[in-house]
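User: For a benchmark we're assembling, each entry needs the component sequences followed by a predicted structure for the full assembly. Here are entry 17's components. Please fill in the structure.
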Amino acid sequence: MCDDRDQDKEIDAAELEEELVADLDALRAALSAKSNGATCRGKYYRPILHGDLRPENILFGSESIGTKAAQIINFGGTREAHPPGFKLASVTKSFLSPTAFKMFVEPVIADMQEEYVCAAAASEKARARWICIRGHMLVIPGWLYAFFAGWLTKLLRPGTNR
Amino acid sequence: MANPFATETELLVLRQLSSEPAGMYGLQLVSSSNGKLKRGTVYVTLGRLEEKGFVESRTKPNNKHSGLPRPVYQITGLGQRVLAAAELLGLGAVGAG
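Assistant: Structure for entry 17:
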């Protein structure tokens, strides 16, 4: 990203494009490395999804003598990206005690998110979709157990909050 | 014979966890159980064991994504004693992988 190229050097359009592509590749690599396995440009970069990543939205400026820095700009086209399961977590949480949710449901969702992120990073869309569907189904046994066990506990031992 | 301490599945989980002092993820337990543990119910078993105090879980901060942290399960001292007692009584052989 940073180099010691001459700031005053005049370059033509083709050269500029070439430089932008090169810098964009470097930027991608840096972002990818930073996010440790996540991908960017059209996919997601934790936890921000850039809606319009293109050369025009990348500014190059000099920070100090001999160094150049790239800055990604956006115009409100970004949104926070979450792996699947956030809505599922909030819905299931509302019917369970925090302890029961943490024990029986949260690990299932966490596994789904982990596997989903790995599949998405490897661009395995079909597998990612399947992981998402399967993960939502796998929540059911744990949720049912926690729900009914909690209900029975309350019934048999009033005053306890499972 | 009824198991006074834990079910066969619970003993299987305890045995697997006792072989990994560093702890295991739920999915690691499933994959190393040769099909005896299922994805859908492994956390029910682990949750029950945690309630009994045979197992404890800890979560590591997730650096890969903004999702929920995955818990790592470890056998407790009580869990080890229960497992030892069950094996002494011959219950440990049930469901051995």
